[in-house]
Amino acid sequence: MGADLEKVLIPADELQAKIASLAAQISTDYSGRNLLLVGVLKGAVMVMADLARALDIPVEMDWMAVSSYGSGTKSSGVVRTILDLKTDITDRHVLLVEDIVDSGLTLAWLISNLRSRNPASLEVCALLRKPEAARIDVYVKYVGFNIPNEFVIGYGLDYAEKYRNLPFVGTLAPHVYGGGREQHGNNRD
Ligand code: PRP
Q1: Which atom of ligand 1 is nearest to the CA of 130?
Q2: Is the beta carbon of 98 within 6 A of some atom in ligand 1?
Q3: Distance 4 CA to ligand 1 centre (A)
Q4: Residues known to be catalytic
Q5: In what order do the strands lie in the sheet with 169-172?
Q6: What is the dihedral of CA 44, 47, 49, 52, to 10 degrees?
């Protein structure tokens, strides 16, 4: 692992501290409301698990899995649903939980998809956002960290399905992935 990792970008304790502060804000904002957390598999597993446990309001949890169409390394913005919600979100307060907003194309599609189901409210919590990689402007109410446009792994984020289990966010050594900056392409179909 050591040789593949370039550096630790966000240590585990900083991730947990940020999640605690996001959770405090979300708990206040949704006090007295019945909140549904929607996690986007697979990357959001870690942030969903830790965020949910840090909230002091009752919540329900559901999951979606999506995949970008198209080959190559760039997000196409054309998304297909691999796993849909079991919950009917009509008139529900929904908080979409993402590990990372990179180009923003996946999130834009998800928001449009979920909005069409007429939730009472829909907001987004993303642990990481790469402002320099944005290809579409998407409003994210709860952002953990804005990060540089580097290939990041750990805490849910993978390279070729590996490294998701790291407790911190790190950058991958360029020799492992060939040096491009694009985050995706190895696990998209
Ligand atoms: C990641 C991440 C977001 C999306 C962001 O998922 O979890 O859903 O990419 O990229 P974008 O802003 O450029 O659209 P990925 O497709 O890598 O799947 P995974 O969560 O299963 O790793």
Answers
A1: 12
A2: yes
A3: 21
A4: 102
A5: 5-10, 169-172, 152-153
A6: -120
Report the distance separating Cα 57 and Cα 24, nearest Å. 10
| Ramachandran class of 161: left when φ > 0, alpha when ψ lies in -120 to 50, beta otherwise | left
> Best of 78, 79, 100 to mutate for ligand 1, by most ligand atoms within 8 A of CB?
100
Query: Contact, 170 vs 153, CB < 8 A?
Result: yes
pLDDT per residue rounded down to tens, the chain (189 residues): 667 899 999 999 999 999 999 999 999 999 999 999 999 999 999 999 999 999 999 999 999 999 976 554 556 678 999 999 999 999 999 999 999 999 999 999 999 999 999 999 999 999 999 999 999 999 999 999 999 999 999 999 999 999 999 999 999 988 887 776 667 644 443
Nearest alpha-carbon partner for 86 in 66, 113, 62, 65: 62
